[in-house]
Amino acid sequence: MPNLIRLIAAFALLGAAVTLFVFGHWGWGILMLLVAIIVGVTFFFNENMLIAQFYLRKENMEKTAFWLGKITNYEKQLIRGQHGYYFLLIGLIESRTAPLKSEKYFKRALSLGLKMSHNTAMAYLSLAGIAMAKRNKREANRYLQEAKRTDKNKLLAEQIKTMKDQMTLMDRTQTRFR
């Protein structure tokens, strides 16, 4: 459902709640007010995105892809702040099946913007892993530095350290085969 219709429905339900309060039907008015609040909240948080994030945390990629597939036109169904997260979720799903193809989704998510610093760091860390798979050490190092800089709460510090250790291991294997 487009966001404009959600907003109109929320205000219509709010008007109905006020009307019920005026006519003295307090119980129905409170119920209608709660429904109006729920519909209003879905303007800011798309239910398909919320369900997809839930299944992503449970690591059920099939259901995550199913719920993201229900978003047919992300520009109309999501607010601008969720566009980056939409592409981040698609990139995370794609990275499980075809890691090199997920690079464009992570770059698009970063260009659209992610509000939380740990999500930005996760996108940079994924891009660093893709660059390492392509044997591009300079680009991987740049993405790791960006991931370290944006990870303010040190939630991904262990993964960043592991990735740096893998880069040094990659250097050793390249010199051994030369």
Helix content: over 70%
Backbone structural class: mainly alpha
User: Can you identify the CATH superfamily of the largest domain?
Assistant: Tetratricopeptide repeat domain
Tell me the series of helices and strands, N- to C-terminal.
HHHHHHHHHH
Mean pLDDT, nearest integer?
A: 89
**Number of structurally distinct domains:** 2
Number of strands: 0
Look up the CATH topology of the largest domain.
Answer: Serine Threonine Protein Phosphatase 5, Tetratricopeptide repeat
Please give a structural write-up:
The chain has 178 residues and is mainly alpha-helical. It folds into two domains: 1-44; 46-176, Alpha Horseshoe (Serine Threonine Protein Phosphatase 5, Tetratricopeptide repeat), CATH 1.25.40.10. The chain contains ten helices and no strands. The longest helix has 20 residues, at 3-22. The mean pLDDT is 89.
